[in-house]
Fold each of these.
Amino acid sequence: MVKVVLLAHTPNPESTVAAAAKLCYSASTIEGIREGLTPEKTASFVEMLSEIGHESPIEHVSFTFGVEGISRACSHQLVRHRIASYSQKSQRYVNEDSFEYVIPPEVEKIPEAKEEFIRQMKSIDEGYKQLAELLTAKHTEAFIAEGLDEKTAHSRAKKKAIEDARFLLPNACETKIVVTMNARSLMNFFRHRCCNRAQWEIKEVADQMLTLVLEVAPNLFKNAGPSCVAGGCPEGKMTCGKIKEVRQFYKEMK
């Protein structure tokens, strides 16, 4: 199950954005940049930025999320958003013996398909274990020949073995990742990944992220969501055709 946690964020994010915006449009000194920024004026500044499309001030605040229960297929999509920072569980250093995996909802709906999916995952897991054992045995011999004691040789061999055994692991393999994005990158992420046309798993990640940032910066993310929330659908002939339903969904979220 997809789970997203907001681990950290810039303190007083909307105030920081408003201060940066104020500097652009007034003669304020740096020391006095926050003077007069009441909650009402802060909200007004943030709303103005959205209306005129001035997005650079919102780059000054960032949000860090912990994401778990997603597949490698999902994380490969996530890291394509390049103006961000990522730290992901390594399959090179973490043994994936008896790995967890994600079952797509459409597979879950068909008992026979789910049964076959699980059977294949078990088969891959067995293959992973067998390959790791074979490689460990080979590497242990090599390390002992180099002069290492048996215990140290075996420990190093196991670590080296999983580096190659991981090539058997499927896209369904569960992973965990820490993600940091500034607000502008998040807006772009939401436009693409909250869309009904996005893959179901990363859409769930995006929706959970949006819910979390709305709690700490509701004015900043008031217009966030898929492109059709604040404009037309960019998907052309590929549109989901449910623009009214989508707009209502994100309206209720906020």
Note: The beta strands are 3-9, 62-71, 85-88, 174-182.
Amino acid sequence: MIAPPTHSGKIDYPCMWQFRLIGSDLAALQRCVVELVGHRPHTSQPANASSGGKFVSLNLSMKVQTAEDRDAVFLALKSHPAVKVVL
């Protein structure tokens, strides 16, 4: 019998965190990232597009200092008009 992993699920901050932004316009998503987190070190990369081309996604990777910092970035991204969904 294989034992399950033994980790607490605790996240040690600061750490790198990845967000996936989904919207209808890749350039608008890229502008959103610059507007909201451009002052902080980050990387962003286009990801998938829906088969009909209606939706595109952008992967954003950045260092977050605390859970509160991570949540604040998530909420800022989520509230931007170019962003339909944040994962």
Note: Residues 23 and 63 are 23 Å apart (CA to CA).
Amino acid sequence: MRKIAELKDIPDGGSKLVMVEDTPVALFNIKGEVHAWDNRCPHRGASLADGNISDSIIQCKFHLWEFDVETACAVANPELKVKTFSVTVEEGEIFIDD
């Protein structure tokens, strides 16, 4: 496991972009649960951390592609999936398996 952030740095309903070696990782705090995704939208590589965030959808800002928070799959085509990382939160620190 690798520590990548602190929970206090991601407001509820917000995001934070971190770099893990050469990979941009978007962290989303959705109702107290942290999700870690590859930050690149599979459509054109736009930043998902800069997108619109709701309780169930992350929407890419550029072409409005929507991804289900729980599955990381595109709403319009569940065959398209964003790479995700396993997350552990311990004592306010966020870790991922990479």
Note: The first strand starts at residue 2 and ends at 6.
